[in-house]
UniProtKB/TrEMBL annotation:
EC number: 3.6.1.55
The N-acetyltransferase domain, residue ranges: 8-171
Domain Nudix hydrolase: 197-325
Gene: mutT
Gene3D superfamilies: 3.40.630.30, Nucleoside Triphosphate Pyrophosphohydrolase (3.90.79.10)
NCBIfam families the record matches: mutt (TIGR00586)
Record's catalysed reaction(s): 8-oxo-dGTP + H2O = 8-oxo-dGMP + diphosphate + H(+); 8-oxo-GTP + H2O = 8-oxo-GMP + diphosphate + H(+)
Protein's recorded name: 8-oxo-dGTP diphosphatase
Top-level taxon of the source organism: Bacteria
KW Hydrolase (keyword) present: yes
Alphabetized InterPro entries for the sequence: Acyl_CoA_acyltransferase, GNAT_dom, Mutator_MutT, MutT-like, MutY_C, Nudix_hydrolase, NUDIX_hydrolase-like_dom_sf, NUDIX_hydrolase_dom
Protein family membership: Belongs to the Nudix hydrolase family.
UniProt keyword annotations, A-Z: DNA damage, DNA repair, DNA replication, Hydrolase, Magnesium, Metal-binding, Mutator protein
Cofactor section: Mg(2+)
Amino acid sequence: MAGTFCLRGLRPDDAGAIHAQVNDWNVIRMLSRLPFPYPRDLAERWIASTVQQAEARTAYHFAIENQAGAVIGCIGLTLSQTDGQYRGSLGYWIGREYWRQGIATLASDRLCSWAFANLPVDTIEASVAQDNVASVAVLNKLGFRQTGAATQVFTARGGNVSVLLFSASRESFDAAHESKPPADADASAEQTEEPRRLVLVVAAVLIDTNNRILLARRPEGKTLAGLWEFPGGKMEPGEAPETSLIRELREELGIDASRACLAPFTFVSHSYEKFDLLMPIYLCRQWQGHPEGREGQKLAWVEACDLDQYPMPPADIPVIPFLRDLL
Ligand SMILES: Nc1nc2c([nH]c(=O)n2[C@@H]2O[C@H](COP(=O)(O)OP(=O)(O)OP(=O)(O)O)[C@@H](O)[C@H]2O)c(=O)[nH]1
Protein backbone atom coordinates (compact mmCIF):
# COMPACT_ATOMS: atom_id res chain seq x y z
CA MET A 1 0.00 0.00 0.00
CA ALA A 2 1.27 3.47 -0.84
CA GLY A 3 0.10 5.00 2.46
CA THR A 4 -0.01 8.76 2.76
CA PHE A 5 2.60 11.02 1.29
CA CYS A 6 2.86 14.57 0.07
CA LEU A 7 4.63 16.47 -2.67
CA ARG A 8 6.59 19.51 -1.48
CA GLY A 9 9.28 21.84 -2.78
CA LEU A 10 12.88 20.63 -2.44
CA ARG A 11 15.06 21.95 0.37
CA PRO A 12 18.87 22.09 0.63
CA ASP A 13 18.80 19.59 3.51
CA ASP A 14 17.17 16.97 1.22
CA ALA A 15 20.54 16.49 -0.55
CA GLY A 16 21.66 13.64 1.74
CA ALA A 17 18.46 11.59 1.30
CA ILE A 18 18.41 12.19 -2.44
CA HIS A 19 22.03 11.25 -2.86
CA ALA A 20 21.63 8.06 -0.81
CA GLN A 21 18.70 6.84 -2.93
CA VAL A 22 19.70 7.97 -6.42
CA ASN A 23 23.26 6.68 -6.06
CA ASP A 24 21.88 3.18 -6.59
CA TRP A 25 22.47 1.48 -9.92
CA ASN A 26 18.92 0.12 -10.10
CA VAL A 27 17.46 3.62 -9.74
CA ILE A 28 19.96 5.62 -11.74
CA ARG A 29 20.09 3.34 -14.77
CA MET A 30 16.52 4.45 -15.57
CA LEU A 31 17.40 8.18 -15.41
CA SER A 32 18.87 9.58 -18.60
CA ARG A 33 21.05 12.48 -17.48
CA LEU A 34 22.66 11.35 -14.26
CA PRO A 35 26.17 9.90 -13.94
CA PHE A 36 26.99 6.82 -11.86
CA PRO A 37 28.41 7.05 -9.28
CA TYR A 38 26.33 10.10 -8.42
CA PRO A 39 28.32 12.73 -6.50
CA ARG A 40 26.68 14.27 -3.46
CA ASP A 41 27.39 17.87 -4.58
CA LEU A 42 25.37 17.22 -7.75
CA ALA A 43 22.30 16.68 -5.54
CA GLU A 44 22.98 20.02 -3.82
CA ARG A 45 23.39 21.87 -7.13
CA TRP A 46 20.30 20.22 -8.60
CA ILE A 47 18.15 21.26 -5.61
CA ALA A 48 19.37 24.87 -5.98
CA SER A 49 18.52 24.77 -9.70
CA THR A 50 14.96 23.53 -9.01
CA VAL A 51 14.29 26.61 -6.89
CA GLN A 52 15.47 28.88 -9.71
CA GLN A 53 13.40 26.97 -12.29
CA ALA A 54 10.26 27.26 -10.17
CA GLU A 55 10.84 31.02 -9.79
CA ALA A 56 11.26 31.32 -13.58
CA ARG A 57 8.17 29.06 -14.03
CA THR A 58 10.08 26.78 -16.39
CA ALA A 59 9.96 23.61 -14.27
CA TYR A 60 8.35 22.40 -11.06
CA HIS A 61 10.15 19.73 -9.05
CA PHE A 62 8.92 18.19 -5.82
CA ALA A 63 10.17 15.87 -3.13
CA ILE A 64 7.87 12.92 -2.42
CA GLU A 65 7.72 12.74 1.36
CA ASN A 66 6.14 9.87 3.31
CA GLN A 67 4.18 9.98 6.55
CA ALA A 68 7.38 9.63 8.58
CA GLY A 69 8.80 12.78 6.93
CA ALA A 70 11.35 10.85 4.83
CA VAL A 71 12.05 11.81 1.21
CA ILE A 72 11.31 8.64 -0.79
CA GLY A 73 11.59 10.04 -4.31
CA CYS A 74 11.30 13.09 -6.51
CA ILE A 75 8.97 14.10 -9.32
CA GLY A 76 8.98 17.04 -11.68
CA LEU A 77 7.50 18.66 -14.74
CA THR A 78 9.54 20.79 -17.17
CA LEU A 79 7.57 23.19 -19.37
CA SER A 80 8.13 24.11 -23.00
CA GLN A 81 6.19 25.87 -25.72
CA THR A 82 6.25 25.22 -29.47
CA ASP A 83 3.86 26.74 -32.02
CA GLY A 84 1.60 28.07 -29.27
CA GLN A 85 1.24 24.57 -27.75
CA TYR A 86 2.30 24.24 -24.14
CA ARG A 87 3.83 20.95 -23.04
CA GLY A 88 5.09 19.49 -19.82
CA SER A 89 7.73 16.81 -19.62
CA LEU A 90 7.25 14.42 -16.68
CA GLY A 91 10.14 12.79 -14.84
CA TYR A 92 10.42 10.96 -11.54
CA TRP A 93 12.30 8.39 -9.51
CA ILE A 94 11.35 6.40 -6.42
CA GLY A 95 13.91 5.04 -3.90
CA ARG A 96 14.35 1.29 -4.36
CA GLU A 97 12.99 0.47 -0.89
CA TYR A 98 9.67 2.05 -1.87
CA TRP A 99 9.08 0.33 -5.21
CA ARG A 100 5.99 -1.75 -5.99
CA GLN A 101 3.73 0.23 -3.67
CA GLY A 102 1.97 2.33 -6.31
CA ILE A 103 3.77 5.52 -5.23
CA ALA A 104 4.91 6.51 -8.74
CA THR A 105 1.33 6.19 -10.03
CA LEU A 106 -0.15 8.26 -7.20
CA ALA A 107 2.53 10.95 -7.36
CA SER A 108 2.35 11.23 -11.16
CA ASP A 109 -1.44 11.35 -11.01
CA ARG A 110 -1.27 14.13 -8.40
CA LEU A 111 1.28 16.16 -10.35
CA CYS A 112 -0.51 15.80 -13.71
CA SER A 113 -3.90 16.75 -12.17
CA TRP A 114 -2.31 19.82 -10.62
CA ALA A 115 -0.49 20.76 -13.82
CA PHE A 116 -3.50 20.46 -16.13
CA ALA A 117 -5.57 22.54 -13.67
CA ASN A 118 -3.03 25.22 -12.80
CA LEU A 119 -0.29 25.51 -15.42
CA PRO A 120 -0.53 26.54 -19.07
CA VAL A 121 -0.21 22.92 -20.18
CA ASP A 122 -2.30 21.08 -22.78
CA THR A 123 -0.13 17.98 -23.15
CA ILE A 124 2.20 16.09 -20.82
CA GLU A 125 4.95 13.93 -22.29
CA ALA A 126 7.33 11.36 -20.88
CA SER A 127 10.15 9.27 -22.29
CA VAL A 128 10.95 5.96 -20.67
CA ALA A 129 13.78 3.47 -21.22
CA GLN A 130 12.33 0.52 -23.10
CA ASP A 131 13.30 -1.85 -20.27
CA ASN A 132 11.52 0.29 -17.65
CA VAL A 133 8.42 -1.89 -17.58
CA ALA A 134 7.17 -0.42 -14.28
CA SER A 135 7.10 3.14 -15.65
CA VAL A 136 5.39 2.06 -18.85
CA ALA A 137 2.63 0.52 -16.69
CA VAL A 138 2.36 3.73 -14.61
CA LEU A 139 1.93 5.89 -17.73
CA ASN A 140 -0.63 3.56 -19.33
CA LYS A 141 -2.72 3.59 -16.15
CA LEU A 142 -2.79 7.40 -16.16
CA GLY A 143 -4.06 7.78 -19.73
CA PHE A 144 -0.69 8.31 -21.46
CA ARG A 145 -0.45 6.76 -24.92
CA GLN A 146 2.73 5.72 -26.70
CA THR A 147 3.45 8.15 -29.53
CA GLY A 148 6.76 6.79 -30.78
CA ALA A 149 10.20 5.48 -29.98
CA ALA A 150 13.69 7.01 -30.09
CA THR A 151 17.14 6.66 -28.66
CA GLN A 152 18.51 8.82 -25.89
CA VAL A 153 21.89 9.06 -24.19
CA PHE A 154 21.78 7.55 -20.70
CA THR A 155 24.91 8.87 -19.00
CA ALA A 156 25.01 6.19 -16.31
CA ARG A 157 24.80 3.41 -18.94
CA GLY A 158 27.47 5.12 -21.03
CA GLY A 159 25.60 5.40 -24.32
CA ASN A 160 22.40 5.33 -26.34
CA VAL A 161 19.38 3.55 -24.94
CA SER A 162 16.08 2.82 -26.72
CA VAL A 163 13.27 4.85 -25.21
CA LEU A 164 9.50 4.84 -25.65
CA LEU A 165 7.79 8.22 -26.01
CA PHE A 166 4.46 8.80 -24.27
CA SER A 167 2.00 11.63 -24.26
CA ALA A 168 -1.24 12.47 -22.40
CA SER A 169 -3.71 15.17 -23.32
CA ARG A 170 -6.08 16.67 -20.76
CA GLU A 171 -8.85 14.63 -22.43
CA SER A 172 -7.00 11.28 -22.34
CA PHE A 173 -6.01 11.94 -18.72
CA ASP A 174 -9.66 12.69 -17.78
CA ALA A 175 -10.93 9.67 -19.73
CA ALA A 176 -8.54 7.33 -17.87
CA HIS A 177 -9.96 8.60 -14.58
CA GLU A 178 -13.57 8.33 -15.66
CA SER A 179 -13.19 4.77 -16.89
CA LYS A 180 -11.87 3.44 -13.56
CA PRO A 181 -14.34 0.88 -12.19
CA PRO A 182 -15.69 1.63 -8.71
CA ALA A 183 -13.70 -0.13 -5.96
CA ASP A 184 -16.57 -2.48 -5.18
CA ALA A 185 -17.42 -3.26 -8.80
CA ASP A 186 -18.56 -6.84 -9.20
CA ALA A 187 -16.00 -8.32 -11.57
CA SER A 188 -18.37 -11.11 -12.49
CA ALA A 189 -21.17 -8.68 -13.45
CA GLU A 190 -22.32 -9.11 -16.99
CA GLN A 191 -20.71 -6.57 -19.33
CA THR A 192 -23.39 -4.33 -20.80
CA GLU A 193 -22.92 -1.59 -23.35
CA GLU A 194 -23.52 1.77 -21.63
CA PRO A 195 -26.05 3.97 -23.45
CA ARG A 196 -24.78 7.47 -24.30
CA ARG A 197 -25.89 10.11 -21.83
CA LEU A 198 -27.38 13.47 -22.73
CA VAL A 199 -26.10 16.05 -20.22
CA LEU A 200 -28.05 19.29 -19.92
CA VAL A 201 -25.96 22.20 -18.71
CA VAL A 202 -26.97 25.84 -18.60
CA ALA A 203 -24.43 28.68 -18.72
CA ALA A 204 -24.26 32.47 -18.66
CA VAL A 205 -22.17 35.01 -20.49
CA LEU A 206 -21.91 37.66 -17.79
CA ILE A 207 -20.96 41.01 -19.34
CA ASP A 208 -19.73 43.93 -17.24
CA THR A 209 -20.08 47.65 -17.97
CA ASN A 210 -16.76 47.56 -19.89
CA ASN A 211 -18.17 44.87 -22.21
CA ARG A 212 -15.89 42.22 -20.71
CA ILE A 213 -16.99 38.61 -20.29
CA LEU A 214 -16.55 36.58 -17.12
CA LEU A 215 -14.74 33.26 -17.52
CA ALA A 216 -14.19 30.74 -14.73
CA ARG A 217 -11.31 28.28 -14.71
CA ARG A 218 -12.38 24.68 -14.02
CA PRO A 219 -10.58 23.70 -10.81
CA GLU A 220 -8.42 20.65 -10.10
CA GLY A 221 -10.44 17.49 -9.51
CA LYS A 222 -13.03 18.24 -12.21
CA THR A 223 -12.96 16.97 -15.76
CA LEU A 224 -11.36 19.44 -18.19
CA ALA A 225 -9.62 21.07 -15.20
CA GLY A 226 -7.67 24.17 -16.19
CA LEU A 227 -9.96 25.15 -19.09
CA TRP A 228 -11.88 28.44 -18.95
CA GLU A 229 -15.67 28.21 -19.20
CA PHE A 230 -18.82 30.25 -18.90
CA PRO A 231 -20.23 30.05 -15.35
CA GLY A 232 -23.12 27.60 -15.02
CA GLY A 233 -23.71 23.95 -14.38
CA LYS A 234 -25.89 20.91 -14.76
CA MET A 235 -29.66 21.27 -14.71
CA GLU A 236 -31.34 19.23 -12.02
CA PRO A 237 -34.33 17.03 -12.92
CA GLY A 238 -37.52 19.09 -13.05
CA GLU A 239 -35.66 22.43 -12.94
CA ALA A 240 -36.33 25.13 -15.54
CA PRO A 241 -33.11 26.30 -17.27
CA GLU A 242 -33.38 29.81 -15.82
CA THR A 243 -33.94 28.43 -12.31
CA SER A 244 -30.86 26.22 -12.68
CA LEU A 245 -28.77 29.10 -13.90
CA ILE A 246 -29.86 31.44 -11.09
CA ARG A 247 -28.99 28.66 -8.59
CA GLU A 248 -25.61 27.94 -10.21
CA LEU A 249 -24.65 31.63 -10.31
CA ARG A 250 -25.46 31.96 -6.62
CA GLU A 251 -23.58 28.75 -5.66
CA GLU A 252 -20.55 29.29 -7.88
CA LEU A 253 -20.13 33.06 -7.85
CA GLY A 254 -22.23 34.33 -4.93
CA ILE A 255 -24.27 36.65 -7.17
CA ASP A 256 -28.03 37.05 -7.56
CA ALA A 257 -29.44 37.28 -11.05
CA SER A 258 -33.13 37.62 -11.78
CA ARG A 259 -35.01 35.76 -14.48
CA ALA A 260 -35.78 39.04 -16.27
CA CYS A 261 -32.03 39.71 -16.71
CA LEU A 262 -31.31 36.39 -18.47
CA ALA A 263 -31.59 36.78 -22.23
CA PRO A 264 -31.45 33.55 -24.31
CA PHE A 265 -28.42 33.89 -26.62
CA THR A 266 -27.47 30.62 -28.27
CA PHE A 267 -26.85 26.98 -27.43
CA VAL A 268 -24.05 24.49 -27.95
CA SER A 269 -24.34 20.84 -28.81
CA HIS A 270 -21.15 18.82 -28.51
CA SER A 271 -20.31 15.12 -28.35
CA TYR A 272 -17.73 14.45 -25.66
CA GLU A 273 -16.17 11.00 -25.44
CA LYS A 274 -18.58 9.83 -22.74
CA PHE A 275 -21.68 12.01 -23.21
CA ASP A 276 -23.51 14.47 -25.42
CA LEU A 277 -23.65 18.01 -24.06
CA LEU A 278 -26.58 20.30 -24.76
CA MET A 279 -26.03 23.73 -23.24
CA PRO A 280 -28.32 26.77 -23.57
CA ILE A 281 -26.35 29.98 -23.06
CA TYR A 282 -27.88 33.19 -21.72
CA LEU A 283 -26.54 36.74 -21.76
CA CYS A 284 -26.67 38.63 -18.49
CA ARG A 285 -25.62 42.24 -17.95
CA GLN A 286 -27.18 42.88 -14.56
CA TRP A 287 -26.92 41.08 -11.24
CA GLN A 288 -26.60 41.78 -7.55
CA GLY A 289 -23.27 41.28 -5.78
CA HIS A 290 -19.64 40.92 -6.82
CA PRO A 291 -18.70 37.62 -8.53
CA GLU A 292 -16.13 35.58 -6.62
CA GLY A 293 -14.97 32.00 -7.14
CA ARG A 294 -16.93 30.25 -4.36
CA GLU A 295 -15.69 26.79 -5.40
CA GLY A 296 -12.01 27.65 -5.59
CA GLN A 297 -12.18 28.51 -9.30
CA LYS A 298 -10.16 31.43 -10.69
CA LEU A 299 -12.12 34.13 -12.50
CA ALA A 300 -11.12 36.43 -15.34
CA TRP A 301 -12.88 39.35 -17.03
CA VAL A 302 -11.94 39.01 -20.68
CA GLU A 303 -12.50 41.19 -23.75
CA ALA A 304 -14.22 39.31 -26.57
CA CYS A 305 -11.17 39.82 -28.81
CA ASP A 306 -8.95 38.09 -26.20
CA LEU A 307 -11.11 34.99 -25.67
CA ASP A 308 -8.79 32.81 -27.77
CA GLN A 309 -6.00 33.41 -25.24
CA TYR A 310 -7.99 31.41 -22.68
CA PRO A 311 -8.13 27.68 -23.50
CA MET A 312 -11.82 26.70 -23.36
CA PRO A 313 -13.71 23.37 -23.51
CA PRO A 314 -14.13 22.27 -27.15
CA ALA A 315 -17.92 22.75 -26.87
CA ASP A 316 -17.45 26.49 -26.25
CA ILE A 317 -15.21 27.30 -29.20
CA PRO A 318 -18.07 27.88 -31.73
CA VAL A 319 -19.55 30.53 -29.41
CA ILE A 320 -16.47 32.77 -29.57
CA PRO A 321 -17.19 34.33 -33.00
CA PHE A 322 -20.77 35.14 -31.92
CA LEU A 323 -19.42 36.99 -28.89
CA ARG A 324 -16.87 38.86 -31.00
CA ASP A 325 -19.69 40.00 -33.31
CA LEU A 326 -21.84 41.03 -30.39
CA LEU A 327 -19.33 42.98 -28.30
N1 LIG B 1 -20.59 25.46 -16.79
C1 LIG B 1 -20.09 25.14 -17.97
N2 LIG B 1 -19.91 23.83 -18.30
C2 LIG B 1 -19.40 23.56 -19.51
C3 LIG B 1 -19.02 24.58 -20.40
N3 LIG B 1 -18.54 24.01 -21.54
C4 LIG B 1 -18.58 22.67 -21.35
O1 LIG B 1 -18.22 21.82 -22.15
N4 LIG B 1 -19.11 22.39 -20.13
C5 LIG B 1 -19.27 21.03 -19.62
O2 LIG B 1 -20.53 20.87 -19.01
C6 LIG B 1 -20.42 20.13 -17.80
C7 LIG B 1 -20.77 21.10 -16.69
O3 LIG B 1 -21.04 20.48 -15.57
P1 LIG B 1 -20.79 21.21 -14.19
O4 LIG B 1 -20.34 22.60 -14.34
O5 LIG B 1 -21.97 20.91 -13.35
O6 LIG B 1 -19.51 20.52 -13.79
P2 LIG B 1 -19.29 19.39 -12.80
O7 LIG B 1 -18.81 19.99 -11.58
O8 LIG B 1 -20.48 18.52 -12.70
O9 LIG B 1 -18.18 18.72 -13.63
P3 LIG B 1 -17.87 17.23 -13.76
O10 LIG B 1 -19.19 16.47 -13.85
O11 LIG B 1 -17.12 17.17 -15.05
O12 LIG B 1 -17.08 16.95 -12.55
C8 LIG B 1 -19.01 19.68 -17.67
O13 LIG B 1 -18.84 18.42 -18.24
C9 LIG B 1 -18.27 20.74 -18.51
O14 LIG B 1 -17.09 20.24 -19.05
C10 LIG B 1 -19.19 25.94 -20.04
O15 LIG B 1 -18.88 26.90 -20.76
N5 LIG B 1 -19.72 26.16 -18.81
